[in-house]
């Protein structure tokens, strides 16, 4: 990748890498990627900002990363700025708030004591957010979720729904764990995913004895899906609008400083992972 690679391309690649739990420690331990993600949290492009927040949310799921992320210069302040900014969409503010709460709680004795007993349960439920009453978690079993192209179709469908905060995939078991606003119905997720014509969504629910069962969405029970106009759809990388120099990622310094970081991040991606 060249130094001219745009911000949206880099942050989307980091987001996809961070979705794999095996990559999260390496991304945070790299000297350039975490400071760069913090720069993205101030980016004027809502696509870049939201993708950066998803990336940080993935990284924060690894307990070993949280203390370093919390202490990284500018991380907590940038999250606060997103939460308080009047122009930030509601879903963006809610996601930033969840990340802030997770990092604030890093190192607490109660969290450490719970880690062993809850580790398996937490791996199955990525976006818990139990402290946030405005959001809830829905687990979907998706028939047809067989490869990266099908996952891309599912991502596009979910990103269009107003009220979807974040999501993660468990490809081995064909599941998607979706964090949504409390007023959004799970049926809306099923309607959007089923509209792809190649994927079929069913809801995974807990039984009284602690087990699980898969509940199909009722036929003919499609609900109106309100599309998310605040956060534009992710564009293909070759059509990204963030090529102009005045949109480069910067905090303090010149345009070339921001582009220098993008080059560093691009080199990290190319040398650290197989594509």
TrEMBL record:
It comes from the Eukaryota. It is found in: Cytoplasm; Mitochondrion outer membrane. Keywords: Cytoplasm, Membrane, Mitochondrion, Mitochondrion outer membrane. Signal peptide: none annotated. Coiled coil: none annotated. GO terms for molecular function: metal ion binding. In association with mitochondrial contact site and cristae organizing system (MICOS) complex components and mitochondrial outer membrane sorting assembly machinery (SAM) complex components may regulate mitochondrial dynamics playing a role in determining mitochondrial length, distribution and motility. This is Armadillo repeat-containing protein 1. The lineage of its organism: Eukaryota, Metazoa, Chordata, Craniata, Vertebrata.
